[in-house]
């Protein structure tokens, strides 16, 4: 019964983490380019209650193993494509398919995002909504009135008074062998890790890379219905584990009340 207390407690702790992950998914249901997370569980070590294999084999009895609970194995990030939303803003871009935009951080390092809500800063440079420069640096001519993304991620801009659009740069796409291994740092940004591998660079529409489209944004891939169902399942699992603790406590109380 003592084992039951610790085993059920491990289940409650695991389900609490599960609920935390689901709550974060629901909180970001309207976050541009957000990717939902899923908690993965793993069982703990097992105790063999009949360790003498010769005797049990001779008697025809199989060894009995008793588990010691559950633990969190990982919190997996799922990078399935989210629905797109039309905005009509030429600086809003999305990647249809695999790949990330790369941005330059304040310390000179790089991060990667699926959030293509870009703007133009005071230096006429294309930046994210948080002010990070989009790599490679895209500089617009003064008085830009029209922006378009051509085949291969080629960005064209037409300034006021000009009849022909000017080619100002090519938007590169980056992909990873294992995007689920990337580390989220907040702000819709991810950084590479040993698990994700090094980034591979390609053009829009190239083999294995997605296509950059203008005037739309990728929304979160969180399904409210699926998350609510997962929340109910986690809640029921938490209640069952708490019930196991209560039952074990009741059994221990009965043992304490036994008289000779």
Characterize the quaternary organization of these chains: single chain
> What is the count of structural domains?
2
Shape designation: elongated
Q: What level of helicity do the residues show?
A: 25-40%
In percent, how much strand structure appears in the residues?
Answer: 25-35%
Secondary-structure-derived class: alpha+beta
* Poorly predicted residue ranges: none
User: The biggest beta sheet, please?
Assistant: 3 strands, antiparallel
Strand tally is 20
List the strand order in the largest sheet.
Answer: 8-7-11
Cα distance spanning the termini: 21 Å
Round the Cα radius of gyration to an integer and report it: 27 Å
* Mean pLDDT metric: 86
| Number of H- or I-type helical stretches | 3
Order of helices and strands: HEEHEEEEEEEEEEEEEEEEEEH
What report would you give on this structure?
Helices cover 25% and strands 32% of the residues. The chain has a three-stranded antiparallel β-sheet, with no helix packed on it. Strands 12-13-14 form a three-stranded antiparallel β-sheet, with no helix packed on it. Strands 1-4 form a two-stranded antiparallel ribbon. The longest helix has 33 residues, at 224-256. It contains three helices and 20 strands. It is elongated, with a radius of gyration of 27 Å.
Topology:
Elements: H1 2-27, E1 37-43, E2 46-48, H2 53-58, E3 65-67, E4 70-77, E5 84-86, E6 93-96, E7 101-104, E8 110-113, E9 118-120, E10 126-128, E11 133-135, E12 144-149, E13 154-159, E14 166-170, E15 173-175, E16 183-186, E17 189-191, E18 200-202, E19 211-214, E20 216-218, H3 224-256
Antiparallel strand pairs: 1-4, 2-3, 5-20, 6-19, 7-8, 7-11, 9-10, 12-13, 13-14, 15-18, 16-17
Helix pairs in contact: 1-3
């Amino acid at each position: 019964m003592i084992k039951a207390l610790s085993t059920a407690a491990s289940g409650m702790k695991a389900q609490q983490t599960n609920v935390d992950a689901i709550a974060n998914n629901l909180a970001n249901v309207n976050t541009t380019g957000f990717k939902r997370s899923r908690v993965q569980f793993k069982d703990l070590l097992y105790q063999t209650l009949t360790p003498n294999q010769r005797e049990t084999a001779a008697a025809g009895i199989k060894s009995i193993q008793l588990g010691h609970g559950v633990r969190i194995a990982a919190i997996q990030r799922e990078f399935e494509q989210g629905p797109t939303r039309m905005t009509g803003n030429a600086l809003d871009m999305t990647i249809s398919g695999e790949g990330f935009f790369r941005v330059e951080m304040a310390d000179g390092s790089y991060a990667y995002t699926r959030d293509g809500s870009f703007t133009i800063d005071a230096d006429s440079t294309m930046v994210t909504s948080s002010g990070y420069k989009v790599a490679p640096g895209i500089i617009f001519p003064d008085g830009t009135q029209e922006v378009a993304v051509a085949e291969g991620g080629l960005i064209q801009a037409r300034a006021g008074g000009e009849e022909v659009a000017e080619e100002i740069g090519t938007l590169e796409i980056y992909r990873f062998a294992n995007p689920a291994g990337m580390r989220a740092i907040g702000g819709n940004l991810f950084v590479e890790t040993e698990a994700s591998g090094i980034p591979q660079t390609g053009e829009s529409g190239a083999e294995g890379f997605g296509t950059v489209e203008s005037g739309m944004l990728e929304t979160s891939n969180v399904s409210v219905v699926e998350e609510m169902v997962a929340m109910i399942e986690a809640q029921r699992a938490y209640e069952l584990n708490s019930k196991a603790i209560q039952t074990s406590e009741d059994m221990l109380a009965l043992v304490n009340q036994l008289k000779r």
